[in-house]
Batch of 2 targets.
Target 1
Amino acid sequence: MDSVPSDGSGALPLTVFKILIAGGFGAGKTTLVGAISEVRPLRTEEALTSASIGHDDLRGVADKHTTTVAMDFGRITMGSHLVLYLFGTPGQERFWFMWDELSYGALGAVVLADTRRLDDCFPSVDYFERRGVPFLVAINCFDDAPRYDPEDVRIALDLDPRVPVMLCDARQLSSVKQALITLVEHVLSGRGRARPAAAPAVTAPGG
Amino acid sequence: MDPGDKWLDRDSGPVVRPYALTGGRTEPADGEVLDLVAVVVAVDPPEPAEEPAPGQVAVTLTPEHRRILGLCHNPATVADVASDIALPLGVVRVLLADLLQAERLMVLPQRPAHEQPSAALLKEVLHGLRAL
């Protein structure tokens, strides 16, 4: 492996990557981040913009100009200069405006699927497809969830054949690690980088 | 109301409205919104000049500014700072912009976010992940 200059100067710049962990509420996003890194809370108090006003019901709260979004993130330090951040995306669709920020410059995304509520990951899949963000679908193997063949899930989600679909246990470091490795390999293969569809202003599906 | 009603728990955040810490400002002073993973680091304060240099804005540092500076002795990302100081991201961005303007902080260069990372860099990430 490439060696890192170790003259103690510390001059090597920090290279930072972002990976998004998406999926419906309760799909195991925080569990996944926690399996591989220390989970840290991040709170935003966003001034409502025109982009978000449609998603935030302001009736009866005329003076409310900010909305609070709580997110989780984790940090994985690799070597002396590589840092990987995992950001759990806020689940509710009214926080789409945060997704634009999170996905900007992101290396890729893991969409966690819960086979009991598979349709919960439709919005994430749709979002990353439209944004040209490379992603994979990781089926979180909940103990009481029916087991499906990944190929069945691919069909149910109407995924591009190139999008990796895998089984995952969000509680297990080894499993989460494998999901991230698969994602980076997917990006590296160049197949994940579909042409972004001219990045139109993203609106919530059906919203 | 029953004074025992604990409707303001920790999750509800501070009682002071968050943007009070920025004097009501919700936009960074320089208009630049720092990326969540932009890396900032504290720099030594400029020599106190007799008169401020042109373009230099005298900023009175609040306790929150000082706490942020303390967190940035080593390079830190915006997300790290916001999490460590437990203030909302938007507030932290305004405070960071103040510190950048006052030349107490600098943003370390990163690869352009819209560019795909090089294969060599991606392989380094893979290697790092495998080694976990």
Target 2
Amino acid sequence: MNAVSSSTTQRAAAAAPLDVARIRRDFAVLAREVNGKPLAYLDNAASSQRPQVVIDAISRYYETTHANVHRGVHTLSQQATDLYEGARRRLQRFVNARSPREIVFVRGTTEAINLVAQSHGRPSLRAGDEILVSWLEHHANIVPWQMLCEQTGAKLRVIPMTRAGEVDFEAFLGLLSERTRLLALAHVSNALGTVVPVERYIQEARKRGIAVLLDGAQAVPHMKVDVQALDCDFYCFSGHKMCGPTGIGVLYGREALLAAMPPWQGGGDMILAVSFERTVYNELPHKFEAGTPHIAGAIGLAAAVDYLEGLGLDRVAVAEHELLTHATRRLGEIPGITIVGTAARKAAVVSFTLEGVHPHDLGTILDHEGIAIRTGHHCAMPVMEFYGVPATARASFAFYNTHEEVDRLIAGVQVARGMFL
Amino acid sequence: MDLKDLYRDVIVDHNRHPRNYRAMPDADRRAEGFNPLCGDRLTLHVKLDGDTIGDVSFEGSGCAISVASASLLTESVKGRSVADAEQLFTTMHEMLTRQDAAVDPASLGKLGALSGVREFPARVKCASLCWHTLDAALHRQAEPVSTEENPAEWP
């Protein structure tokens, strides 16, 4: 694959910074215009763009190999199965899971969390048991637990956060009790960019036998994640935020836990034998993949992993941190700007408000300049409530963004100030 | 598409200095509007004088379009009959959502300034929220109005 060969060259120059101009040529969409201006895509925390190698991997699969997997004896079906299961092993290596049986393909982070809530949580939780989440969670790591609480009588407890947007570790220790059964924590906050030092939380939870799920949707695209080093029980992430397709994501689960969990959805592929009296479920991970899976999605996601590892996640992190630093400094120079979320360690996300200008108006004005940012509550309404704002503007960067694009953002914010002040 | 079509002077002015922005303890009718996509909320208060809207005011937070639209609404429906206000709601809804609307913005006075919104589909709901809220207030609807109720306004 192209990404592999180019990655070899790039690894040779591991210490060198990323060649952003060259990388941008891998992303056709970055060359388009929006409202007559060059697109500056600064909404990567919502969804990233895809390099050509990912689009090509999907097209090539449909053009040459598509058939249903795990079924026929015919050649296409075997080749499609090889590609699909090869993608699973690629993802296994990417997060350093012990076995491909620990990698379940799902639609995305949201589905992964719902799967764990319903298949791990529902049979094991009793009334009065407690689930811990933090204040900075995305709705996807709140609502499935609330639904589980309604079903089981368990209680949702919330770990507070500080003004800076960091989870309060001392408060977390205070919330731990013999009733705590599960800790569900964001690895990186989508609304604020906070990188949560999850290791210490996991350590405390493991000591007490509390299961730990990490929402890694915002972490995986930007840093090397090793589920064995983290020692978490479940790790969830989405393809579309890491240069992969939409509609595909991964649930990593510790094998012993996955094996003990009942299936979530029933159907084809997740069974070994079916009669009207009794059904024998399939082995891991197929037990959790009822129906024809998103084969092309998994193949595209594996291509995205090749691409990201070819660039080097360490170099990606350095490039994105420089963009964050530049944006934070330049935004801070504008009167009336408040940066929301000032954690010591942040991913390349900057959430902000501008006095006298509502984020939605700012979003429209920036769009007119070809600049795409997210405005709103970022599916984290408790975070907005904490800061007493209905919404923020959020610029989120990827390795293909440039400092010039950050400067255009700053100029656009100045235009908005001029219109309303 | 020109930004000036959206942010006309009238709109910028009403956003900066919203008219009838106040509580109304003795209101006869009250309704809440909510835009779950952006978190904007507004409360509309109406005091009836027989069949006439004797007084109307609003409170809440929102973008320039939603604040200006609510401010313009209060100015334009005060003193109108309930039936008139409902007719105006229908007209505004048509102007905001339909490209082929048979509404002449010039006939609507200052409200015509909102006609540019329909060129910005993501912002139609910002302008229409207060009108739906008024409709709910006049019909004594207890449940808050959500911008997600009307598929015609989905971007």
